[in-house]
From TrEMBL:
It comes from the Bacteria. The lineage of its organism: Bacteria, Bacillati, Actinomycetota, Actinomycetes, Kitasatosporales. Residues 31-265 form the AB hydrolase-1 domain. One of its GO terms (molecular function) is hydrolase activity. Gene3D superfamilies: alpha/beta hydrolase. Keywords: Hydrolase. This is Alpha/beta hydrolase. PANTHER family: HYDROLASE ALPHA/BETA FOLD FAMILY (PTHR43194), PIMELOYL-[ACYL-CARRIER PROTEIN] METHYL ESTER ESTERASE (PTHR43194:SF5). Pfam families: Abhydrolase_1.
Length: 280
């Protein structure tokens, strides 16, 4: 079990894309909930929600290959295609036939690809500011993707400043300094710096283009939550996505940017718990 004072994933799964660090909160036998983080984040963003849900659910958290505490290696495939396959592998490893799934940002596309392309089944799916509809990628994101080999050679101090500024921009009211430190920490050593630019270089819109036309096929209960002040993916994209998903609930969250988990944790937790308890 993860302690209240730290966030360390204690278990390892040897996926096809590298070792995945993961953990489980809550009593076995309770309904399973799986949380997927986005980029450039890790399971750490779910720490408060995971502990709240663990009172009534069995909660699975994991860092995707190339992120957080999971393996980061030269030449590693950390694309949306690879992450969708890894998620399907993990569900099988965990023995979860039809869990509840909550996914943020890049994790939303991972969950959607696993369902539409790899046959993963969910009891219900909650999407929080997901990467799902074209076009996506900020000008900065595209610039880094086109010149990742140059950015990888940045001096450590310059790289640190760039990553801190980029991560901080995901919040509307601003991140607590300790939280910002924790979010950028995995990207600051030599493997982390290379991994940061690798994941941006491999972020290709074609991985959502190939499933976007199939969103109308999704038959499970869905919830779309969105920070109204999201500057990374405008709230209009959230409304567009909710209209495409049959019967989806739409939950805008005032005062929150892209990192809704940090900007409005109480409001997001309330919306997600209400949905998970009564998805139909």
């Amino acid at each position: 079990m993860l302690s209240d004072t730290d966030w360390k994933l204690t278990r390892t799964f040897p996926s096809a894309a590298g070792d995945v660090r993961w953990d489980r909160l809550g009593d076995p036998g309770r309904p399973p909930v799986v949380l997927l983080h986005g980029t450039p984040f890790s399971s750490y963003v779910w720490r408060a929600l995971a502990r709240s849900l663990a009172r009534h659910y069995q909660v699975f958290v994991w860092d995707m290959p190339g992120y957080g505490a999971s393996e980061k290696a030269a030449g590693q495939d950390v694309s949306l295609a690879a992450q969708g396959r890894v998620f399907s592998e993990l569900l099988s490893h965990w023995g979860l036939a039809e869990p509840l799934v909550v996914a943020h940002d890049f994790g939303g596309a991972v969950a959607l690809r696993a369902h539409l392309l790899h046959g993963a089944r969910y009891q219900a799916l909650a999407l929080v500011d997901p990467v799902a509809l074209a076009p996506w990628g900020s000008p900065f994101f595209r610039l880094v993707g086109e010149h990742s080999d140059v950015f990888e050679r940045f001096p450590p101090a310059l790289h640190r400043a760039l990553v801190r500024e980029y991560v901080a921009s995901a919040s509307s009211p601003g991140l607590h300094p300790a939280v910002l430190d924790r979010l950028v920490e995995p990207w600051l050593d030599d493997p982390g710096q290379a991994a940061f630019y690798r994941q941006i270089a491999q972020a290709d819109q074609r991985y959502t283009d190939e499933i976007q036309g199939r969103y109308t096929e999704i038959g499970m209960p869905t919830l779309v939550c969105w920070g109204e002040d999201d500057t990374w993916i405008p709230v209009a994209k959230g409304r567009e996505l909710a209209a495409l998903l049959p019967g989806a609930r739409w939950e805008p969250i005032a005062g929150a940017g892209h990192l809704v988990q940090e900007d409005a944790p109480a409001e997001l937790t309330a919306a997600l718990i209400a949905f998970l308890q009564h998805p139909l």
